[in-house]
Every structure is written in structure tokens, then in C-alpha cells.
Amino acid sequence: MSKALTLTVNGQDHDIDVPLTTPLLDVLRNHLGLKGSRYGCGLEQCGACMVLIDGMATYSCSREVGTLAGRAVTTIEGLGSAAALHPLQQAFLDEQAGQCGYCLSGMLIAAKAFLDQNSQPTRSEVAATLDANLCRCGSHPRILRAVLKAAAKMHPRVD
């Protein structure tokens, strides 16, 4: 049974008519045309589908859209733009942190949520945070460097 609801994604309200049990990832990709979040496993085990919900990194593959009334969803498309990249996006480019790129939207989203809470992370903290995001092409060392580079830019040390 479908039900009309309003979903706030990347600062814009969208009226959608889907069953309330529809996964958020399906709505983002198939109804709103936001293809940055990817389907990887459907079991909250790879991180390719991560989005921010009220600033918290969340798996969208299993999150039912009916649970999101009054919540703010941010996808990778809402993180920055081609004209104004987010510091994380720029750092990932600078460090050539992606090969195939399939995991990158989830990595960027997880890193954003983490850096919003931890302004001076260590390499081991970044690695532990991104452990839930799988990268099959072996870009982890560059990804870790990119997150640390972005952290330094986003939160410069004041000594």
C-alpha cells in the first residue's frame, strides 16, 4: 500500500508516493534520480549506500522511508558541487583516493559524519571509522590520507 509523504533530501522537500517500507536507497535512486548512493549488498555490510540522516551516517539500503518524517537526508550530491567541492571531495581528488569509485560516496559520507564529530582524528581513528565501508580495489591508504588531509583543512590546528 502506497502512501504520499514528504521527504527532505539535500535541503529540498520531495513529495513521493511509495509504500512506507520502501528502502530509502530505492527512493533516492529510482524516484529522485540521485544515483550517487549505490547498492552494494542490501545487508548493511558494505557502506556503498551510506547517506547522512540528521548528520549521522546511515545505511540507506535497509532504512524504510516511512521512518524519515521530519528528518533531513543528505546524499553525496548534497555534500558539495562541481563548482564548490567539499574539502573531503577535494582531498579525495588530490590524493587520487579512488580507482573504480564504487565505494567513494559511502566513504565520503562516513568521513563527513566522523569529521563533524572529531576535528583532529588520528589515522587509526579514521581507519576504524571507515572499517564498515568496503573498498575492493585497494585504495584504503589513499582514502585514509585524503580524510586526514580534509580534516586538517576543515579544522586547522590553532597552536
Order of helices and strands: EEHEEEHHHH
CA-based shape: globular
CATH class of the largest domain: Alpha Beta
| DSSP E strands, number | 5
CATH architecture of the largest domain: Roll
Regarding quaternary structure, what we see is: single chain
Q: What's the N-to-C terminus distance?
A: 58 Å
Radius of gyration: 16 Å
Segments where pLDDT lies below 50 for 5+ residues? none
Q: What percentage of the residues does DSSP assign to strands (E)?
A: 15-25%
Number of helices: 5
Output mean pLDDT. 94
Put the structure in a nutshell:
InterPro entries: 2Fe-2S-bd (IPR002888), 2Fe-2S-bd_dom_sf (IPR036884), 2Fe-2S_ferredoxin-like_sf (IPR036010), 2Fe-2S_ferredoxin-type (IPR001041), Beta-grasp_dom_sf (IPR012675), Diverse_Oxidoreductases (IPR051452). Helix content is 33%, strand content 17%. With 159 residues, the protein is an alpha+beta fold.
